[in-house]
Write a structure and sequence with these properties.
heterodimer; A: 328 residues; alpha/beta; Rossmann fold; seven-stranded mixed β-sheet; five-stranded mixed β-sheet; 38% helix; globular; B: 325 residues; six-stranded parallel β-sheet; two-stranded antiparallel sheet
């Protein structure tokens, strides 16, 4: 019974926070909107009532100082989760995240680690335009000293949140609000997923399709459509952007000889470029066709829903791209 | 008479334009003809109107997420605003920005952005530009009480004071930073006091009293023009609608934030009704004349909606227009 218990993606995060805060008094949640479903959906429900305002802290709009405070608390022995309900606002917090947290362990010769989770939520669509829609995983992944995870399922969301909290180093945990209602089986106990390990969502022999977060769902849908057309697609959900599971990508490309990457971030210098480079460097001899990248155009998010429709990647775009790579 | 009739009429018309324009979005938002998030300015009209009345098209304004009022008060095209909120090609930002990114360079409305405090330092830069070029221009930044949580406000106050920049900081204190009442954000609710340690002159203003805002704004802007800036004004006001969209955020409703009695109390303090009462009681503008202004504006707003709805959406093939890198 319990092994088949289903949970919403957002509630899987909520359960991870409940269990980790109960298990470890050094864990606390800080950020804007921790007590408002406006901001964090139901990911924080029940936490304030259970753990009190000293460990569930709704803050003024002060991203730089609040994130810095989380970093400092981590250096001083706590395990903070700092939430940015719109990750666009994390740019205000880049100094504590990048200059301080990411570098701290190295520049202090391994004397002090920073066990902090930077939790950022993507909120795209809805004509919200350029400052309320950004997916910044590649920006963070570029920084040495930051791990970046992007779970796509409720099971992964709970397991990676727990892993991020337990990790002795800074982890950027990025979720997409479009995933919050996805429901699936989630174990009730505390478990963690290894950061840096991807998973094959669908086995196939013709084309490897690599994606992460929301695009992993769209990729599985595309693969189902392509199966009906006789193209057998292997879908890799990377789960972690950094470290990236290069071995999984390479192994799959060695089998299929073809690679398509679908990413909800921008194209240039992004995740899709990184995956393509891994295939080129480590599996070049196996490639039967050039790697194709599907990513957001190098363009700020537009407001108009007509432009949004042209801007974001849809299942059909993935289907067409895979067909091309397969020579259809 | 203390104020020229033309000024009083202009102030009244501007407030009515903002109110009727804002309220005209309620229905299209509910029917989902308007999709983009709109942070309505209803209830706060006296602030933008009173401040911008002393600015010329040469002066600069930067706004925030709730800036329809700043844009209109500064002289931005109403039709361009409405079309932008429908995300049409004819909108002031050509449908690329929506409600939170509105601009009219011709009248000195240099832009708006929803990153909290995000444009304060931009106004600082506009004031710096005026100062470097020795031009008679003043830069105004409008921001909310929530913005006082961001460090960039304090950095900007210091630098503006250091360089004696022609800049007016206008804090629109509506007592709520989205879901957070001000008492949960700050120990002291008197925001204007933050300016003093930086050597910036500041005062608290009744932001629902148009003439008080006008006086304070005129004085502040005049000081800036004389090289005696910057100035900080805290305008106490209240939003009649909720943080975003038409919902009023009353406690017990699903957004559950503001006490019903508090909202009622502020409705009694409606800046437009207050001004109307003053104008009538002083025999300055007749009810008939005010009615005629309202009718003019109603038509202008209705025309703007027709214009917007009959305007094309941006062409999806042009999604990369205005991208340069």
């Amino acid at each position: 019974m319990s092994s088949h218990r289903k949970l919403q993606y957002s509630l899987a995060i909520n359960e991870a926070l409940h269990q980790m805060m109960a298990a470890d008094p050094s864990v606390f949640l800080i950020g804007q909107g921790t007590k408002s479903p406006w901001y964090v959906g139901n990911t924080a429900q029940g936490l304030l009532e259970r753990f009190g305002a000293s460990r569930v802290i709704d803050t003024p709009v002060s991203e730089n100082a609040m994130t810095g405070a989380a970093v400092g608390a981590a250096i001083a022995g706590m395990r903070p989760v700092v939430v940015h309900p719109r990750m666009d606002f994390m740019f205000y917090a880049f100094d504590p995240i990048v200059n301080e947290a990411a570098n701290w362990y190295y520049m202090n010769g391994g004397k002090a680690s920073v066990p902090v989770v930077f939790w950022g939520i993507i909120n795209r669509g809805g004509e919200q335009a350029a400052q309320h829609s950004q997916a910044l995983h590649a920006t963070f992944a570029h920084i040495p000293g930051l791990k970046v995870v992007m779970p796509s399922t409720p099971y992964d969301a709970k397991g990676l949140m727990i892993a991020a909290i337990k990790d002795p180093n800074p982890v950027v945990f990025i979720d997409d609000r479009l995933l919050y209602r996805v429901e699936d089986v989630v174990p009730e106990e505390i478990y963690e997923l290894e950061i840096g390990k991807g998973v094959i969502r669908r086995e196939g022999k013709d084309v490897t399709l690599a994606a992460v977060s929301f695009m992993a769902h769209e990729s599985v849908k595309a693969a189902d459509e392509l199966a009906a057309q006789g193209i057998d697609v292997e879908v890799i959900d990377l789960r972690s952007v950094k470290p990236i599971d290069a071995a999984l990508i390479v192994k799959s490309v060695m089998k299929t000889g073809r690679l398509v990457v679908a990413d909800g971030g921008w194209k240039s210098f992004g995740l899709s470029a990184e995956v393509a480079a891994i295939a080129s460097e480590q599996a070049f001899a196996f490639l039967k066709a050039p790697v194709k990248r599907l990513a957001l155009p190098d363009c700020p998010a537009p407001a108009s829903s007509v432009l949004e429709d042209a801007y974001y990647i849809k299942v059909n775009d993935i289907v067409k791209t895979v067909q091309k790579v397969f020579g259809r | 008479m203390k104020y020229p009739l033309l000024l009083l009429e202009t102030l009244y018309r501007t407030m009515v334009r903002i109110r009727l324009c804002e309220e005209s979005f309620v229905e299209p938002i509910l029917s989902r003809d308007v999709l983009c998030p709109c942070h309505l300015y209803s209830g706060e009209e006296a602030v933008a109107t009173g401040i911008c009345a002393s600015l010329t098209a040469r002066d600069y304004v930067f706004g925030n997420h709730r800036s329809h009022g700043h844009y209109l008060a500064k002289g931005g095209s109403l039709a361009g605003l409405v079309a932008e909120i429908y995300c049409r090609e004819t909108g002031c930002s050509r449908g690329r920005g929506g409600s939170m990114h509105i601009v009219d360079m011709d009248c000195g409305m240099l832009g708006a952005a929803p990153i909290v405090s995000g444009t304060i330092s931009l106004a600082l830069g506009a004031a710096l530009a005026a100062s470097i070029r020795k031009e008679d221009r003043v830069a105004v930044t409008f921001f909310g009480d929530g913005a006082t949580g961001e460090g960039v406000l304090y950095e900007s106050l210091n630098f503006a004071a250091l360089m004696k920049l022609p800049m007016v900081f206008v804090c629109e204190n509506n007592f709520y930073a989205t879901h957070m009442p001000i008492r949960d954000c700050r120990v002291s609710s008197s925001i204007y006091k933050i300016a003093a340690p930086f050597g910036v002159e500041s005062r608290e203003v009744d932001g629902n009293d148009i003439l008080q805002v006008y006086e304070a704004g005129w004085e502040a802007i005049d000081k800036c023009r004389k090289g005696e800036g910057p100035v900080f004004l805290e305008c106490l006001t209240y939003r009649f609608r909720g943080h975003v969209g038409p919902d009023d955020n009353i406690q017990g409703s699903h957004t559950d934030i503001r006490p019903q009695e508090e909202v009622e109390r502020w409705f009694q303090n409606d800046p437009i009704k207050k001004f109307e009462n003053y104008l009538v009681s002083q025999n300055l503008i007749s009810e008939l004349a005010m009615d005629s202004i309202r009718k003019d504006v109603e038509k202008e707003v209705a025309d703007a909606h027709r214009f917007a709805k009959s305007s094309p959406s941006p062409d999806s093939k042009e999604v990369m227009n205005y991208v340069f890198a």
